[in-house]
Design goal:
Radius of gyration: 22 Å
Shape: elongated
Oligomer: single chain
Number of helices: 10
Distance between the termini: 45 Å
Strand content: 5-15%
CATH superfamily of the largest domain: NAD(P)-binding Rossmann-like Domain
Number of strands: 7
CATH architecture of the largest domain: 3-Layer(aba) Sandwich
Number of domains: 3
Helix content: 40-55%
Order of helices and strands: EHEHEHEHEEEHHHHHH
Largest sheet: 5 strands, parallel
């Protein structure tokens, strides 16, 4: 069965991770970048996870209060070394309609985690439908060599330009043409080469010299 690809906004949302070993640590390290409220349930924690709990960045809860804690989260990750316990946690989450991922137990999951290439605002998710995480990881490594830090700068730049254009109330058809022109312009190569003057010239040629190109570019670089 194919999985429906989706990107979820977790900012200020509750996420529960059950387990305190290396797998749980890896999941939490990633979750920390998404500004969610993380709780962890485990009698034992890696030194890093204990440090997060001590600093108040992650909330430690008792396994006995798991049912109550489920009522305050939108996502659960079962990452213990006990498959039976992971299954029980997954069942409880499913009964409440909560998204759940049970590590290495795809039949207990309502979602699986893709391998992700990140460069600033760019995220490329790679999935084999749970059939071969190793292949997804290999593909991720290949793509990371293609989508470098210049993409992060380009996305930030285009986002600021888009916001400014939309604020001017011009017809969407006019804006669409400009967006397409910018995407197919030499901007990416100029950014990669560090030619900021060339970036400004290119933007001005498409946007007009009355557009606040200087201010926008200075915010990115």
């Amino acid at each position: 069965m194919p999985y429906y690809p989706i990107f979820v906004d977790l900012q200020d949302q509750g996420v529960l991770v059950v387990g305190g070993g290396e797998v749980a640590e890896r999941k939490i390290r990633d979750l920390l970048t998404y500004a969610c409220r993380i709780s962890i349930a485990s009698p034992r924690l890696t030194p890093y996870l204990k440090e997060l709990v001590d600093r108040g960045e992650v909330r430690l809860i008792d396994l006995d209060s798991l049912d109550e804690s489920l009522d305050a989260v939108v996502m659960v990750i079962a990452a213990t070394d006990d498959p039976a316990l992971n299954s029980r946690i997954a069942s409880k989450a499913k009964a409440r309609g909560i998204l759940v991922n049970s590590v290495d137990q795809p039949l207990d999951c309502t979602f699986i985690m893709p391998s992700v290439v990140k460069s600033g605002g760019l995220q490329i998710a790679i999935s084999t439908g749970g059939k071969s995480p190793a292949l997804a990881k290999k593909i991720r490594g290949e793509l990371e060599g293609i989508f470098g830090p210049e993409y992060a700068s380009l996305i930030e730049l285009l986002g600021l330009i888009r916001r400014e254009l939309l604020s001017r109330g011009k017809p969407s058809s006019d804006n669409k043409i400009i967006f397409q022109q910018l995407v197919h312009s030499p901007l990416l190569d100029l950014i990669k080469e560090g030619d900021i003057k060339g970036v400004k010239r290119t933007l001005s040629s498409f946007l007009g010299y009355e557009f606040p190109v200087e201010a926008i570019v200075n915010r990115v670089f």
